[in-house]
Amino acid sequence: MASVGYQFAKDRLKLGILPIESPAAVGPVTRIERLDRTMSVPSHLSPGEDITENLLFALKHEGTNLSLIAAASVHLEPGKLLAKLREVPNGAYIRKLCLLWEVFTGRLLEDLPAQVGGVIAPLFDPGIYITAKNAPRDKRWRVELNGLGNWDYCPTIARTPALEALLAQDLLSEVRAFFQEFPQATLDRVLAWAYLDETRSSYAIEGETPSGNKAEAFVKLLRKAEERQPLTEDYLITLQNAAMVNTWALEPSFRQTQNYLSNGLRGAAGVTYVPPPAELLPSLIDGQAKLADGSLAEGLPPLLRAALVSFGFVFAHPFLDGNGRLSRFLAHYTLCQSGALSNGYILPLSTAMKRNESAYLAALQSFSAPARELWQVNWLDADAFSFEFQGHSSIYRYFDATRLCEFTCAMAQESLRHDLRAEVEFLHCYDRVLREVNAHYDIDGSTLSKLIRMALSNGGTLSKHRRKQFAPALPAEVFTFIEERVQQAQTALAPQSPE
Fold first, then answer.
1. I need a surface site. Which of 130, 167, 350, 482 has the fewest CB within 10 A?
2. What is this structure's pTM?
3. Whose CA is closest to 154, among 371, 400, 405, 323?
4. Can you tell me the distance from the alpha carbon of 367 to that of 389, in angstroms, rounded to the nearest whole number?
5. CA distance 291 to 289
6. How far apart are CA 396 and CA 178, in angstroms?
7. Average pLDDT, integer, range 382-393
8. Per-residue pLDDT tens over the stretch 178-208
9. pLDDT tens-digit map of 448-478
10. Residue 377: what are its φ and ψ, rounded to 5°?
11. Angle, nearest 10°, between helix axes 302-316 and 402-414?
12. Closest CA to 24 of 13, 37, 145, 158
C-alpha cells in the first residue's frame, strides 16, 4: 500500500528521525480508519506525492510531529507554502506549517496575502495530546503554542486511556493525605526510611552500593530538593560530584566528547545507545530546566512534568557517568519545585523502579533503541569508536514521551500504595511486638530490634541460622515468643476476606 502523510514524507525525503508510531497508507476503505497501530486512507483522500500536501494531511489527521517537520522543513519550497496560503489564507493547518517552517529554517515567508487570519489554532490538538494551559500565541500566524516546552525541548504526551486513568486518581494528593495521617514521630520514621531507600534503590539500579558517607550525602541532596535552586550546569555538576561513588568519576563540566552506553559486547554491536552530540547539550538542558522550575507548560500535571525532565535528562546524558541516578533525583526535584511535594515529603520512585527494573529498561529502550539506529558506529580498537550521526537533532528535542509518562505514573502509584504503606505497616508491627516482648522479657535493645526485624522480613519466623546465632544469649522460648507475636501482628494487619 502507498504511504501517505508523515510516513510518505519520511520515506521520500529519507529523513533521519524515529519511526512513525501509526503510519498512514492508502487502503481498501471508504473513510479514514485507525486500525491498531496504522491509519488506512481511502484513495480519493490521498494527498498524492506533493510533500507539502502530505504534511498538511498529516497535521490534520495524524497530529503534530515536530521532529519530522523540523527535519522536512529544509526540503519545503517557500513558493508552494505561499501558494497554498493564498488558496486558503484562513486555513489552520497551512498556518501551522508556515509557522513551523519559519521556526525550523530561521527564515521568514515574504509577500503574505493580506487576508491571512482565522481563529486561533492550537499547535497541538488538546483532544489528542496533553497540552499547556494559557499558552502564548504567535500573532503572525494566529497559532497557540501549547506544547509542553519550547523550541529547545518539547516532547509530546498522548491522551491514552491508561494515562488518563492514572491521572484521574490524583496520586500526589493521595501522597500528601497519606503523610498527614500520622503523628510527627511516625512520620519522621517513615520519611527517614523513604529517603534512605530511595537512595539505595537508585544506586542499585546502576549496580552500585554507596558508602555510608555517600548515601548520607545523597539523602541530604534529596532533602534540599525543595530549595529554589536553579537547574544550572554548575548545580548539576555539584549533584553529579555528590552522587558518584568513585572520586575519579567526578566531572568539572558537561561532557565535551561523545559518550555511549554498552551492553558489554565487543565492538559496535555492544553500543546500545548514543546520546546527542555535545553541542546540543546546553539548549537541551536549558529547556529541561525551564520545565523543571515550572516556567514552561502551565497546568502540566507534576508527575508528567517530572517524567519529561527525568527521562529527557538521561537521554541527553550530559555527563560521562552518573546520569541515571541524577535523572531519578531530578524527578523528585521537579515534584518539589512544582509544590506537589513539600514539608520534606518524598515519593520513593526508585524503590518501585528497582522492583520493576525490566519495565524501566523497556521504557528507556522505547527511545534509546530506535535512536541508536540513527548512528553509524565504527569500532577502532579497544574502547575507541568513531560516531557519525545520520539522523536529525530534532529526535532528542521532540519525541513521544507517552510511554515514559505512563510508566512514571504507574511507579508513583506503586510507590505509594505498596512501598510507603508497607513501611508503615512494618513500623506498626515492629512497635507492637517490641512492646509485648519488653513486657515479658528483659532483652538488650539492639538484639531485640534485630530479631524483630528479621522475623518481620521473613514471614514471621526466625531461621535456624538466626536462632543458632543468638542462642548463647537467649533461651529458646524467646525466639518462639517473638515469632508468635510477629505472626499475630501481621495477621491483624492483613486484609480480611469478605464473608
1. 167
2. 0.92
3. 400
4. 16
5. 5
6. 37
7. 92
8. 999 888 998 999 999 999 999 999 999 999 8
9. 999 999 999 998 999 999 999 999 889 899 9
10. -115, 125
11. 120
12. 37
Residue 399: which residues within 8 A CB-CB, separation 6 or more? 18, 67, 155, 156, 315, 367
Contact between residue 328 and residue 162 where contact means Cβ atoms under 8 Å apart? no
Task: Convert the pLDDT of each residue in 259-285 to its tens digit.
Answer: 999 998 889 999 999 999 999 999 999
Q: How far apart are CA 443 and CA 451, in angstroms?
A: 11
Q: Locate 477 and state its grid cell.
A: 522460648
Amino acid letter for position 407: F
Cell of 343: 514539608
Cβ atoms 391, 16 nearer than 8 A: yes
Q: Is 150 left (phi over 0), alpha (psi -120 to 50) or beta?
A: beta
